[in-house]
Specification:
The chain folds into two domains: 176 residues, 3-Layer(aba) Sandwich (D-Maltodextrin-Binding Protein, domain 2); 94 residues, D-Maltodextrin-Binding Protein, domain 2 (3-Layer(aba) Sandwich). It has 16 helices and ten strands. Helix 3 packs across helix 14, helix 3 crosses helix 16 and helix 5 packs across helix 6.
Length: 291
Amino acid sequence: MTVSRRDALAYIASAAALSACGTRKNIRVGSKNFTESFVIAEIYSQALERSGLAVDRRFNLGSTQIALAAMRRGDIDLYPEYTGTAAIDVLHLPPMHDPIQLYRTVAREFAERYDLFWLTPSPMNDSQGLAVTSDFAKRERIETLSQLAPVASRFRLATIQEFVVRPDGIPGLHKLYGGFVFREVRTYDIALKYRALLEGKADVASAFTTDGAIAVERLTVLRDDRRLWPPYNVAPVVRRQTLQTQPHVARILDRVSPAITDTVARQMNAAVESGQDPADVAAAFLKGVSA
C-alpha cells in the first residue's frame, strides 16, 4: 500500500502548522497486549528517543477499547493501531477492501469523533486468517476458505474469544461463505492457539497473517477467496495536543513506518516469540532505517 505523506497528514495539517508551544513533556507511548503491538510500539519509542525526545512506555494496556480510552483520557499520547480494527471494532463500519479508502475513512472519522490523528500507515497488513498445518492442507486438499466452509463440521477450531463474536470472525465467515459450523470451537489466549494446533488439539486456528508462528512452523494460511477480511495496515495514532506541541513527532514516525512490511513483521514477531527482548528486536530493525 502506498500513501503519500501529504495524504497521511491531511487531517493533522492544522495541528502540525502550529508552532510548538507550552511545556514539553515526555511522549507517552502505549501498546496493546500482544507481541506485534509491543514491538511496533517499541520501534516508535526508540525512533523518538533517537531524535532526542524523552519517552515513557505504557505498554500492555489490553484491548483496543482500553488503548483508545487511555488516548481519550490523555493517559497516553500515541499507540499503534490497525485500519481494519478501527473500522470494525471502533467505528462499526462495514468491511472495506480498498486500503487507501479504508485508511482515509478511519483517519477522517477518528479526527472528527475523537480528535485523534492517523500518521502514515505501514505497508504491513496484519489481516485475519485461518491457518492449518501443511500436512492438513495436503491431506484434506484444502487451500481456500470456500473449500473449508462446507466441511468445517469435521474439524476443531482453536481461536480467541473475540473471533467467535466479531462480525469479521465466525459470524462473517458463516454469512459470506455459508457453512463454517465447526465440530468444536475452543478459545485460547493469543499465544496458545497455535500450540493447540501443533499439539493436535485442533485442526484449524484463527490467525493474524503476520504472526511469527506462520513462518516458524510453516503453517498454511487458507486463501480468503471471497474477500471477507479488510486490510489491517498499522499506523501511529496520535492525540491532537501532542501534535500541536511537538509536530516533529509526525516527521519522525513517518520515516520508520514505510519500512515495516509483512516479511519484517513476521521476522520480528518470531524473534520475540523465540525469547528475544522486543527492545532488542526494535533496535535491530531501526539500524536498517535511514535516519
